[in-house]
Amino acid sequence: MSTAKILPYAPVVVKLLKGPVEYVEKGAWEKLLQYKVELTGFLQQLGLYLVLDEQDGFAFVKHALTEDDEAYVSWIHRRSFSYEESIMLVLLREMMAEFEISESGSRELIKKRREIKEYAELFFKEGASRIKFLKEIDRLIDKVEESGFLHRIENHEVPDEQKFRIRKIIKAKVDSEALETFQQQLSELAIGSSVEAE
Known about the structure:
It holds the Pfam family DUF4194. This is DUF4194 domain-containing protein. InterPro entries: JetB (IPR025449). This protein has 8 helices and 6 strands; from the N terminus they run H-E-H-H-E-E-H-E-H-H-E-E-H-H. Helix content is 50%, strand content 14%. Helix 4 packs across helix 6 (130-146) and helix 5 packs across helix 6 (130-146). It has 198 residues and is an alpha+beta fold. It has a 3-stranded antiparallel sheet. A 3-stranded antiparallel sheet has the order 4-6-5.
């Protein structure tokens, strides 16, 4: 029984089909950079496009063809987000934008669950029950973590003290246009509130 030669970058292909690859995964990241030309060519044959951001240290694949194309094959699991989940993603992207213009010497944005909740509270409308409201924000944080935009780096017996790394992949998924639209909506809300107050 002869064994076909396995491509040296095959493990990276498998990883990319499961989700983003980041520079913190040293072995996979080094191999990805080493074989980026070969990987790009191989993925193109599958109808996929390699998105690689060496500066921010992440890579992911997206479909090169649309669902209308005859040769289209769905390789990647697509997630759909509710309105509230989308708002949470935009808020995390906003936190990333603020972090990047700050004078922080750190490469990674690390936040406690409590800090994310405090930031989110400014933008979500509080319902009748505060406990229920905070539980809903917790649910949104968990959903975003499950979707791969937050990486829990430290567990804590007090849930609010859990630490998360906001993954830079969020920059590719929530573009500057979405961020501008969100900021415009916030400004309009703020103007509306001040008019009401008068």
